Amino acid sequence: MLTTLIWLIHPATLGVFVKTSGTWINVATVLIGSGLGIVLKGNLPTRMQRIITQALGLLTLFLGVTMAGSLLKVKLGIFDGVIIGLIAIVIGGLLGEWWRIDAQLRTIGDALKHRFQGGGSFTEGFVAASLLFCVGPMAMIGSLNNGLSGDNTLLSIKSAMDGLASIALSSSYGIGVAFSILPIVVYQGGLSIAASFLAQSLSEPATNPSVLLTSGVGGLIVMGLGLNLLEVAELSIAAFLPGLLLAPLLCAIIEWLA
């Protein structure tokens, strides 16, 4: 209510904190959830920790499938959203492997593990949580809304989900999950601050083809993360991240050619 009132008074009165308030709420819930998960870790049998991780894997897989459905809502000329998404994630995956993004993320995780003496699953927890919390339509659209009007409603809902997820993740992976707040601050906070510039090129973010394509590709990536959590496969999830940038780029190219 307060942020809405400030927005109605004058957009210029919105400070940096208000524009990124959803991100800070997200940081708080992840830290609280991670702390609870670490406390529970010592009191839960291994089989129960595994059940929690499997439950999170099932939910992650469901969310990924739901997000990927955004590809079905896009039609650009003769190209279906599914085809554009396929091209984006394949080329993005090839670029990610070429740039060794997965290895670089693990290097960062290992460096933090050494610096803070994290447990054996520190890197896995850091990478899994970072991808889960930063990839998806809620992170992107919520950050845009927060940056444009100070409305942090969507990010607050996401924060509650991330807090619960961090309990399950940290009970299995340990303190590495808590350090996922670093990419949350950089990605969501940075996107919120840049939202005023992005707004000039995006009309109706929730239904914009570029946003839908990016969300759909993000859904495919989240599906892969769910499969990894369920130990069904070992996918190099981070390698596909360039696909998130290629999706709106391909959309812009197709619209320009049309």
UniProtKB/TrEMBL annotation:
It holds the Pfam family DUF554. The lineage of its organism: Bacteria, Bacillati, Cyanobacteriota, Cyanophyceae, Leptolyngbyales. The keyword Membrane applies. It comes from the Bacteria. Keywords: Membrane, Transmembrane, Transmembrane helix. InterPro entries: DUF554. The chain crosses the membrane at residues 24-44, 51-72, 78-101, 122-144, 173-199, 211-230, 236-257. The keyword Transmembrane helix applies. This is DUF554 domain-containing protein. It comes from Leptolyngbya boryana CZ1.
